[in-house]
Specification:
Elements: H1 2-14, H2 25-35, H3 64-73, H4 81-93, E1 98-102, H5 108-116, E2 122-126, H6 152-159, E3 166-170, E4 185-190, H7 195-205, E5 209-218, H8 225-237, E6 241-246, E7 250-255, H9 256-262
Parallel strand pairs: 1-2, 1-4, 2-3, 4-5
Antiparallel strand pairs: 5-7, 6-7
Helix pairs in contact: 3-5, 4-5, 7-8
């Protein structure tokens, strides 16, 4: 009788267009554990000493503005929720000043940053043609045909429903910033991945930053050796700057002098 009821239930859902799969015993165990107040997540075979990450108690994930922004950008960015959460929190720590995203692809990251601080002006830079130069031995994890399936119009359309002070520039940064007033930058998301682009961007930005300013670099210590080298070189020649790694694969860069000056020390 039980089997007949199960078959009727299965056909009921099939006839209404639902996929019906047999539930794995592991899911039954997880359901039971949840009822007992526990969460069962598999440990990685590569990193057996590391417990899984639970974000259920993180306040940012319950922030309705953050949730709304994630829904708006999730199909327009390659950034995961953890990195988007870092950008959201750090952008709010900075300012007042201009906000930049260098290496925007389809604009999801830029819109997310703008959503965090909607009153600020934002500048979006991307070649929309992929990479210009890839250094052998440094930029090997990237391909010349990557990040070409986007355009200035795609980013413009993404921002269209929002009343933001927005400037989009196509081309390779910092050449694409010519004739723009970029003095007073308080936040920059630098997502250019490779050695030359990272080096040139950091050197350009060094004297454009204002007090309480931050640069967040994406793909730090994730196999993008050119980016890591460019950051080390920058720190060697700009002694007032320091950097900290952030999980999972970002670095935050700032000038202690600029932060001290902004609080009157």
């Amino acid at each position: 009788m039980l089997n007949r009821l199960k078959e009727k239930t299965k056909h009921f859902f099939l006839e209404r267009g639902y996929q019906v799969d047999r539930l794995h015993p592991l899911w039954l165990m997880r359901g039971f554990a949840r009822r007992m107040g526990y969460s069962l997540l598999p440990l990685s075979a590569e990193f057996p000493l590391h417990p899984p990450i639970s974000g259920q108690d993180l306040l940012i994930l319950r922030d309705p503005d953050f949730q709304k922004s994630i829904q708006a950008v999730e199909k327009h960015t390659l950034l995961d929720v953890a990195r988007l959460a870092n950008l959201w929190s750090l952008a709010k720590m900075t300012g007042p000043g201009k906000m930049l995203e260098i290496g925007s692809f389809r604009g999801g990251g830029a819109l997310h940053i703008s959503n965090a601080c909607p009153e600020r002006e934002i500048f979006v830079f991307d070649s929309f043609e992929g990479f210009r130069n890839l250094k052998s031995g440094l930029d090997d994890i990237f391909g010349r045909d990557w990040f070409k399936d986007a355009s200035e119009e795609v980013v413009q359309t993404l921002f269209k429903p929002y009343n933001r002070r927005l400037t989009i520039r196509k081309g390779f940064f910092p050449d694409s910033a010519s004739n723009l007033d970029l003095e007073g930058v308080s936040f920059c998301h630098l997502d250019v991945d490779v050695y030359e682009a990272t080096r040139d961007s950091l050197n350009f930005l060094a004297d454009k930053l204002t007090g309480r300013s931050l640069i967040v670099l994406d793909d730090f210590q994730r196999g993008a050796h050119g980016l890591d080298l460019a950051l080390r070189e920058f720190l060697e020649t700009h002694k007032s700057f320091t950097t900290f790694p952030m999980f999972p694969g970002q670095a935050v860069l700032f000038s202690q002098e600029l932060w001290d000056r902004s609080v009157g020390i």
